[in-house]
């Protein structure tokens, strides 16, 4: 069985390792249009699971972001990371000492990669400690939580970004560019899917108290975010259906959800997400003038795609390298919003709230506030 | 604007014309395993619209089927077809003389290609005249009608097939073969879409009295049939949502419908159909062991596809040639059921009934009888 670490890699249908080797040159391509400064964003990673490992490795190729600190509840991990990344003792925290970050002038931002349901608490703590926040998706369990986190960061004067790494991914950016340039015409239809077969039945992703929800929260959010950047609009309404074929494994969280959204310009999105099977990670956007398809669309790469004009041949990059360099420029140089702010994440959370509400109400159409 | 004649051709993303030129050799490939006899099925076409024109042209390459008669209400068409296809006067009928087919020993079968809502009446008439029936899809407006048509043909001792041409299409057959051989593993998910942007707002397809319904009846049925041959199972339930962005053009029939189905083996299908945009014609089947994708899946060809093993490179054929040769063998040589019988169509009609019922009931889950 594939575990989650493998999942987005599986979606790439191989060749994922090439992304790393091509990262440096490709990243230069993505960021070449942006002005450079010498300052680096000094980042602490909070939550040293498999994704944090991936981020740390990707950050070794960063130009504008640098891993300088960690927050972990596991002393053995602290020791290992300290050695591997040459992290000074004064930049090593645990979950009881997070508030002390405020006394550390050598850390600019904390990247929160803890289990999803802990994001709310951790963002509030990091904001209170006066550090900028990068938080993995989903930002929160609910829109209400997300709003509280945004407000807390704003009050603290700290920036809040969410790890929607695809907004720095060249194929994704090209689809957005084409749509914005009108090359697809008025968008009429989106068919997005994202899911994988979850492995270890004891993992936190299957516990509601840690995960907030199931496939929808974890990876269905890619389909939602993709429908929003595929249309460039906010959905007006949603209908949704939940299917559970394994009520034991998925006793606490959703297994498979299908949902539909309506957009102001007339576009309809139909989306599916699951923890029950692989080979599900496609973005498909149809406009009056053409289409764009990314498949795999949401994995760690390589992203592949085509449009009505032919194959999309964009640079293959390491998403996390590009994201961290890109967000460093947003934070340090006040670069424009890359559609990865807390406000963007709040919009996804409103959709997630509405999807769960529609399911509770038997598939009823829910207007999104 | 594309008209419907262009639609399935558009889905092919070009190269459609090559299908004709390759038809003979490819057809031989499809049928080579079947024993041959010299008898030809002598066919009359009823309803000489654009699709009948396509069928007639395709039949010029047939080995086992021959166009020998026509039924048309338009004298000018009768004259033109008589000349083009050398049809004897005694084999030319209009809608008032259909019953006289029973006195014509030179016609074995009638292929009914009239507007959808007329299929019921015409199948009943042809069966009563003692001729085998091939009827375009959808077989009927409702499952009740379809059952009546099946019963009438059975009582008359006549065979009833429906123009589900893809069951003779090599890429489609290969996907079915892989699924039956277990190469995809247990099927868990299907994502099928079929639609096109309808042109002329005055055409019969937009009139409920002639069309029975809209996109769902006309092309959504491909997504339904594809979910059935993709899983090899009959759906247990359906949920459905209708979206209408142009209530004037689509005053009488459905414009866009999304629907979901659940299957006994645990598979879920999510499908979409529309009359409102192009670039929608994909079959996607995910099993525990792999996937199969056809895109374009439902047009007149060339059908293209891939699986987890790589590209599907099957012969490109003219679907209508293969269908008519294949059905000739079913009728004349009692070849096994090619999943194109009235009973097969009845199962699709039960799903269509349930989809419309779910829409009427606000997306409620409808069990399929």
TrEMBL record, chains A, B:
Domain Gfo/Idh/MocA-like oxidoreductase N-terminal: 41-164
Pfam families in the record: GFO_IDH_MocA (PF01408), GFO_IDH_MocA_C3 (PF22725)
GO molecular function, one term: oxidoreductase activity
TM stretches of this protein: none
Lineage top rank: taxon: Bacteria
Residue ranges constituting the GFO/IDH/MocA-like oxidoreductase domain according to the UniProt record: 173-292
Keywords: Oxidoreductase
Signal sequence extent: none
InterPro entries reported in the protein's UniProt record: Gfo/Idh/MocA-like_OxRdtase_N, Gfo/Idh/MocA_domain, GFO_IDH_MocA-like_dom, Glc-Fru_OxRdtase_bac, NAD(P)-bd_dom_sf, TAT_signal
Similarity annotation: Belongs to the Gfo/Idh/MocA family.
UniProt protein name: Putative dehydrogenase
Higher taxonomy: Bacteria, Pseudomonadati, Bacteroidota, Cytophagia, Cytophagales
């Amino acid at each position: 069985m594939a575990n989650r670490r493998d999942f987005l890699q599986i979606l790439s249908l191989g060749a994922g390792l090439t992304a790393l080797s091509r990262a440096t040159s490709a990243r230069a391509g993505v960021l070449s249009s942006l002005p450079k400064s010498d300052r680096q964003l000094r980042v602490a990673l909070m939550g040293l699971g498999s994704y944090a490992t991936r981020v740390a490795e990707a950050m070794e190729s960063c130009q504008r972001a640098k891993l300088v600190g960690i927050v972990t509840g596991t002393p053995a991990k602290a020791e290992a990371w300290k050695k591997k990344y040459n992290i000074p003792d004064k930049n090593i925290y645990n979950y009881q000492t997070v508030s002390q970050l405020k006394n550390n002038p050598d850390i600019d931002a904390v990247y929160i990669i803890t289990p999803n349901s802990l994001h709310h608490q951790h963002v509030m703590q990091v904001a209170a400690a006066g550090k900028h926040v990068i938080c993995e998706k989903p930002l929160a369990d609910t829109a209400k939580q997300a709003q509280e986190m945004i407000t807390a960061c704003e009050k603290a004067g700290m920036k809040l970004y969410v790890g929607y790494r695809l907004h720095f991914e060249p194929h994704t950016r090209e689809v957005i560019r084409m749509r914005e340039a009108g090359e697809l015409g008025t968008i009429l239809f989106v068919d997005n899917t994202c899911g994988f077969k979850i492995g270890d039945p004891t993992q936190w992703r299957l516990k509601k108290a840690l995960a907030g929800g199931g496939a929808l929260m974890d990876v269905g959010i890619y389909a939602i975010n993709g429908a929003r950047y595929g249309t460039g609009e906010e959905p007006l309404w949603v209908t949704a259906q939940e299917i559970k074929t394994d009520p034991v494994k998925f006793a606490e969280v959703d297994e498979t959800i299908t949902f539909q959204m309506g957009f102001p310009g007339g576009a309809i999105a139909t989306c599916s997400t699951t923890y029950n099977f692989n080979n599900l990670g496609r973005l498909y956007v149809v406009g009056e003038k053409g289409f764009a398809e990314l498949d795999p669309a949401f994995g760690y790469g390589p992203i592949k795609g085509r449009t009505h004009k032919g194959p999309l041949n964009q640079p293959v990059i390491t998403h996390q390298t590009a994201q961290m360099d890109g967000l460093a420029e947003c934070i340090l140089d006040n670069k424009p919003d890359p559609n990865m702010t807390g406000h963007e994440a709040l919009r996804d959370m409103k959709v997630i709230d509405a999807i769960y509400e529609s399911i509770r109400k038997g598939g009823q159409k829910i207007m999104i506030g």
